[in-house]
Amino acid sequence: DGGITQSPKYLFRKEGQNVTLSCEQNLNHDAMYWYRQDPGQGLRLIYYSQIVNDFQKGDIAEGYSVSREKKESFPLTVTSAQKNPTAFYLCASSIRYSGSSTDTQYFGPGTRLTVL
Amino acid sequence: AQSVAQPEDQVNVAEGNPLTVKCTYSVSGNPYLFWYVQYPNRGLQFLLKYITGDNLVKGSYGFEAEFNKSQTSFHLKKPSALVSDSALYFCAVRDGRGSTLGRLYFGRGTQLTVWP
């Protein structure tokens, strides 16, 4: 998990609340990603960002929002519009893809969100 | 469309025996393939990747994977399993064309249990 930190480790949300999950990396990576993990469903992409001040929706962006104001930070907000937010959330980063090369995504330790 | 299938939800093997975790993929263009491992309540750890070249890729902790283009497979293997190998394993594929901006597509995961 080294180089990518996520906080908090556990988060509890009441109905109707917005909550923000933190993701910070010190790997000098350009690209950052947010995934949601549910049992038996693998990882699903929520949002990703290739560069500061730019980000794209993934497969399940509804009810989530992100910002990328700094290269090292990519916070995820789970809004009240997300109807079933209880899940394990994983942040990842990688060197920006370019040309025909590829690179590895490295993951943080995750945040487990539970709706009360 | 890019996709990954892990046909076995669970694999059970005795310690000291060889293990195989299966993965097949579908991708347009050249495939870039990855294996990750996840221990309970932890992030994903990178094991190995195939970009190009030799069909047998060696990775961390004694794991290796065999790329087979004709069968569109990328099976993870280890000659002698350890109890500590028990974990959830994910296969992922990335489209080599570049238009997907570094996105990975994950399988649903295979739970490996190694019995002492």
Task: Provide tags for this entry.
heterodimer, A: 116 residues, mainly beta, seven-stranded mixed beta sheet, B: 116 residues, 12 strands
Structure description:
The complex is a heterodimer of chains A (116) and B (116). With 116 residues, chain A is mainly β. Helix content of chain A is 0%, strand content 48%. Chain B contains no helices and twelve strands. The interface between A and B is medium-sized, with 31 and 24 residues.
Short summary:
The complex is a heterodimer of chains A (116) and B (116). By secondary structure, chain A is mainly β.
- The total beta strand count of chain B reads 12
Unreliable stretches of chain B, pLDDT < 50, 5 or more residues?
A: none
Average pLDDT taken over every residue of chain B: 91
Radius of gyration from the alpha-carbon trace of chain A, in angstroms: 14 Å
Q: Please give the share of residues in helix of chain B.
A: under 10%
Structural topology:
The complex is a heterodimer of chains A (116) and B (116).
Chain A: E1 4-7, E2 10-13, E3 19-25, E4 31-37, E5 43-51, E6 54-57, E7 64-66, E8 76-78, E9 87-94, E10 106-107, E11 111-115
Parallel strand pairs in A: 2-11
Antiparallel strand pairs in A: 1-3, 3-8, 4-5, 4-9, 5-6, 7-8, 9-10, 9-11
Chain B: E1 3-5, E2 10-14, E3 19-21, E4 24-26, E5 31-38, E6 44-50, E7 56-58, E8 64-68, E9 73-78, E10 87-95, E11 105-106, E12 110-115
